[in-house]
Design goal:
Shape: globular
Helix content: over 70%
Order of helices and strands: HHHHHHEEHHHHHHHHHHHHH
Structural class: mainly alpha
Largest sheet: 2 strands, antiparallel
Strand content: under 5%
Mean pLDDT: 83
Number of strands: 2
Length: about 450
């Protein structure tokens, strides 16, 4: 996969690096990568843990939530990504440009992001713990806690190597977990637990039992591309070289043609990744509904990973244990890798907005990205040691992700109406799709708030 030339700063746009986008499908394929890193991040905690729990509790009736969650957010991803292409600005610089109150050098959006990320420490901590649990299931002689240090070291080492290492690792693991997940669902069709067409149709009735609304809310926040992943997408676009090849904005016909060309490449990257994570997410949900819900197995969130492995063994045969363990391990490890690279860049960028470093200067940015790439896996491991409940940690983080999604919605509205160059305005059909996405997300948010208040009021 082509990437930004080594030694050049992708966060500084210069006219000499501007380059027209490829016109052919094969040419555009060479520049795929940012979306596949997101896919590696997306298909992880939400799918293996959150989606499976939702399927186990709701059965097939909640299938529509998964499909809608995966489809409606991609226009926000594209809108945020376009901002990176025509401005070259990093994510935190983009958030800091939004109107509204400020505290010190940082605007309200960065403070909201920072608070949510503190909660999301639990989510990624649950992923780290999930990797350790699966390794312990595969090798019972080695305790769960003994697996934490090698997991942290391995992921931190790869993530600290830079964009190319993260992209390569993400692509390899995306291919593996896609194949193993689809194979699991396919094999299930030759058992008494095969999914029928009537059951699939029942999952598209847009109805939910009240007792599973909280899990639907968490699933909507986790599955598909979440608010935090939309924010991260800009770093991968910039480091892949999309913005640098677009060049500094001068509104000339040449610049406009380049910008439109790279936006088309970005759309292809985003849509291919959406197709992959939608299929895999749907497969995980159907596995949870077909296996756990039908058998009446509603394991405690804390022992979901272990119980799921046993149920696969009982229904598909002893060989399925290794399929599950191997696929599940790759799923969680891919999320851990992508999250490490993402958190390192976000916090280094935020440090720049707070005035601690010059993020645009690679001599200051890159050392801090490497430090954060080692720091956060350690913090996630500590979080797991304190809570020791991977599934609950993931669900809490998924619910918190909705707050970031609201920030992204506001930012996308602002970018679309106030900053997008007139020459890059999209079609009416695209604007309708963007409006539908915004309305759907806000509607889910209101329903989630009502559900949360109802749960609180019902508590003794």
């Amino acid at each position: 996969m082509a990437a930004h030339p080594a030694g050049e700063n992708p966060y500084i746009l210069t006219a000499d690096r501007a380059q027209a986008a490829p016109e052919t499908f094969a040419g555009r394929l060479k520049f795929l990568g940012p979306g596949l890193i997101l896919t590696a991040s997306i298909v992880g905690s939400g799918e293996l843990i959150g989606t499976t729990i939702f399927g186990a509790r709701a059965g097939f009736v909640g299938f529509w939530v998964i499909i809608v969650s995966c489809l409606v957010k991609v226009t926000l991803q594209l809108e945020f990504g376009k901002y990176a292409l025509y401005t070259g600005r990093s994510t935190m610089a983009a958030l800091n440009s939004l109107p509204g109150p400020r505290l010190g050098r940082a605007g309200w959006a960065i403070w909201v992001w920072l608070v949510v990320m503190m909660v999301k420490l639990l989510q990624v901590g649950g992923i780290v713990g999930g990797v350790a649990v699966l390794l312990s299931l595969a090798f019972p002689a080695v305790p769960v806690l003994w697996w934490l240090p090698p997991c942290v070291i391995a992921v931190a080492w790869v993530a600290s190597r830079g964009y190319r290492a993260i992209e390569t690792g993400s692509i390899v693991m995306t291919a593996i977990f896609t194949a193993t997940t689809l194979l699991s669902l396919l094999v299930l069709q030759w058992t008494p637990l095969a999914v029928t067409g009537a059951e699939l149709w029942s999952g598209m009735t847009f109805d939910l039992p009240p007792e599973v609304v909280f899990y639907a809310w968490a699933a909507f926040g986790i599955t598909g591309i979440g608010g935090d992943e939309i924010l991260v997408y800009n770093y991968w676009l910039i480091e892949k070289g999309y913005a640098a090849r677009t060049g500094p904005r001068d509104d000339s016909p040449e610049w406009t043609a380049r910008a439109k060309g790279w936006i088309r490449v970005m759309k292809m990257d985003a849509l291919i990744s959406m197709a992959i994570y939608t299929v895999v997410t749907a497969a995980f949900y159907l596995l949870g509904a077909a296996v756990l819900h039908r058998l009446g197995e509603l394991p405690r969130d804390s022992d979901l990973l272990e119980r799921l492995a046993l149920i696969y063994t009982e229904t598909l045969g002893p060989w399925a244990r290794w399929l599950y363990l191997g696929g599940g391990l790759v799923v969680l490890a891919s999320t851990m890798l992508a999250a490490t690279g993402a958190w390192a860049r976000q916090f280094a960028d935020a440090a720049g907005q707070f005035g601690f470093i010059d993020f645009l200067n690679p001599e200051q940015r890159e050392p801090w990205v490497r430090r954060f790439a080692w720091l956060f896996p350690c913090l996630w491991a500590v979080a797991f040691l304190i809570v020791r409940d991977s599934a609950t940690m993931v669900l809490i983080g998924g619910a918190a992700t909705m707050a970031v999604l609201f920030v992204v919605v506001f930012a996308c509205i602002w970018f679309r109406l106030k900053t997008l160059p007139a020459s890059l305005r999209p079609s009416r059909r695209y604007d309708i799709a963007l409006a539908v996405s915004i309305v759907a997300i806000l509607a889910v948010g209101v329903q989630a708030l009502i559900s949360a208040l109802a749960r609180v009021s019902a508590m003794p």
